């Protein structure tokens, strides 16, 4: 499974990168947040390798207004997005800024208003992954 290390990025940036990667895969896979990493889950066809994800990621980063603040590193198998701007540990967590009573999916960033819908949503992720 392809992973993108985003440990130096804020939660909002991680979500934006995951969305850009998912859009760039055109239905062949989906990028999901997994802690400090973005993992690529294949939906159809062969497993998506880093060499397919890297150009999508580089294209997205270069199109950002603050592109100079990011550096994409790759050794052909592992991809990491580094930031030259330090991000406080609190800014790394999107969920810290949610109003009370809302729950955020740690994998994709979706926000739910009830514990039941949150649990159902997490079960869907497990089904997609095959657990």
Query: Beta-strand level of the residues, as a percent range?
Result: 15-25%
- Portion of residues within helices: 25-40%
User: Which class of secondary structure composition applies to the elements?
Assistant: alpha+beta
How many H/I helical runs? 3
Spatial gap, N to C terminus: 15 Å
Main sheet?
5 strands, mixed
Mean pLDDT: 84
Structure write-up:
With 131 residues, this protein is of the alpha+beta class. The chain has one domain (2-129). It contains 3 helices and 7 strands; from the N terminus they run βαββαββββα. The strands form 2 sheets. It has a 5-stranded mixed beta sheet with strand order 2-3-1-5-4, with helices on one face. Strands 6-7 form a two-stranded antiparallel sheet. The longest helix is centred in the C-terminal third of the chain and has 15 residues, at 115-129. The protein is globular, with a radius of gyration of 15 Å. It starts with a strand and ends with a helix.
In a few lines, what is going on in this structure?
This protein has 131 residues and is of the alpha+beta class. The chain is built from 3 helices and 7 strands. Helix 1 (11-24) crosses helix 2 (50-62).
